[in-house]
Write a sequence for this structure.
């Protein structure tokens, strides 16, 4: 959605210009990972996965963590 892209554009600029720390709860994981350096994936109130966003790759394993596999 265009509103989400606009929001991320503004947020990215704020982070870059001010060294802002952001806690973001987001359903568009692929967009969130482009914005952050580190992430924590929470499932059932517990950290299920955490690390550097650059280590996630395409995020498919995160989707599987939340949605389950097709197998």
């Amino acid at each position: 959605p265009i509103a989400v892209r606009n929001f991320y554009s503004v947020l990215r600029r704020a982070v870059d210009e001010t060294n802002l720390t952001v806690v973001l709860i987001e359903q568009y994981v692929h967009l969130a990972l482009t914005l952050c350096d580190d992430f924590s994936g929470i499932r059932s109130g517990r950290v299920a996965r955490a690390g550097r966003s650059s280590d996630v790759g395409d995020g498919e394993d995160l989707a599987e963590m939340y949605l389950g596999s097709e197998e």
